[in-house]
Write a structure and sequence with these properties.
This protein is an alpha+beta fold. It folds into 2 domains: about 230 residues, 3-Layer(bab) Sandwich (Hsp33 domain); about 55 residues, Alpha-Beta Complex (CBS domain Like). About 35% of the residues lie in helices and about 30% in strands. The protein has 10 helices and 12 strands. The chain has a 10-stranded mixed sheet. The longest helix is centred in the N-terminal third of the chain and has 18 residues. It is globular and about 70 Å long. The chain starts with a strand and ends with a helix. The structure holds zinc ion.
Length: about 290
């Protein structure tokens, strides 16, 4: 279990979020058998989405990063309850370290887009994108928030992976400018962040999200603290709904194949079996609905 906080720096016109999510990233690493560079990339995306989700009262937010690199698409999702999940298209890709660091930017690539999709429990789902800047994820998210959402933002995300692949530290922070912030305040913050230590070094020293924000701002007013955990929202009902959405023809084909349908969730590797008799029932349901129309 980790946690994410929402805070206001005292006497300054910014808002800030910080997260510690080592357990979440270690859980996803074990579940999906992630390579070190895949762990770092997905871990950063999970920390990033946790920071965005900390601002939600209801619904969920998804971060989708597609940079054309060997890792393929990286997806991370978080909801208002602190549940996080994520997946990377090619989880076993390994790349040699660059300057003793896992080359997340190379793995993700930078020829593509970062998209943020938000479901705030309203009728519509909101989606917006920006071009990738570096594929390092924190920079890309900051650029997205600043340009696409027009909220000047600074983002730091980090995952520290041990030589045996285990996650030693994961987390990050997000600072956003409030409209009242003066140019001087912004310059001062930029100066602080320029010489700020790597967020992984602070996390691995055991600093909490509160303490990290205090390092940035001196003192903060805590607004909210939420637990974060790796929890998938998949279920047999959702699997069945997906099958129904395939339509009568596709479902009949599955029935003709004469085998149970096995579905494995990309996010948590949970296996679901839809038996032949159940497929027959689903087909009947579709037919019944069609007749009612
Ligand atoms: Zn799942």
């Amino acid at each position: 279990m980790g946690h994410v906080i929402r805070a206001l720096p005292k006497g300054k016109n910014f808002r800030a979020f910080a997260v510690e999510c080592k357990d979440v990233v270690e859980t996803v690493r074990r579940l999906q058998g992630l390579s070190p560079v895949a762990t770092a990339a997905l871990g950063r995306a999970l920390a990033g989405v946790a920071l965005l989700a900390a601002d939600l009262k209801v619904g969920w937010v998804m971060l989708q990063i597609n940079g054309g690199g060997p890792l393929g698409e990286v997806i991370a999702e978080g909801d208002a309850e602190g549940n996080l999940r994520g997946t990377v298209q090619n989880p076993s890709v390994t790349l040699p370290p660059k300057d003793k660091k896992l080359p997340v930017g190379l793995g993700v690539g930078k020829k593509g887009y970062i998209s943020v999709i938000r479901d705030l429990g309203l009728k519509e789902v909101y989606q917006s994108s920006a071009e990738l800047v570096s594929g390092e994820i924190a920079e890309d998210l900051a650029y997205y928030l600043t340009v696409s959402e027009q909220v000047p933002s600074a983002v730091a995300l980090g995952v520290l992976v041990d030589t045996d692949g285990k996650v030693l530290a994961a987390g990050g922070f997000l600072v956003q400018k409030l409209p009242e912030a003066t140019e001087e305040e912004v310059k001062e913050l930029e100066k602080v962040l320029k010489s700020f230590p790597q967020v992984t070094s602070l996390l691995s020293k055991g600093l909490s999200p509160e303490e990290i924000l205090k390092e940035v701002f001196g003192s903060i007013e805590m607004l909210e603290k939420r637990e974060v955990r790796y929890k998938c929202s998949c279920s047999i009902e959702k699997v069945e709904r997906t099958l129904v959405a395939l339509g009568k023809e596709e479902l009949s084909k599955l029935l003709d194949e004469g085998k149970d349908v096995e579905v494995v969730c990309h996010f948590c590797r949970q296996k679901y079996t839809v038996t032949l008799p159940r497929i027959k029932e689903l087909l009947k349901e579709i037919t019944k609905k069609e007749e009612e129309k």
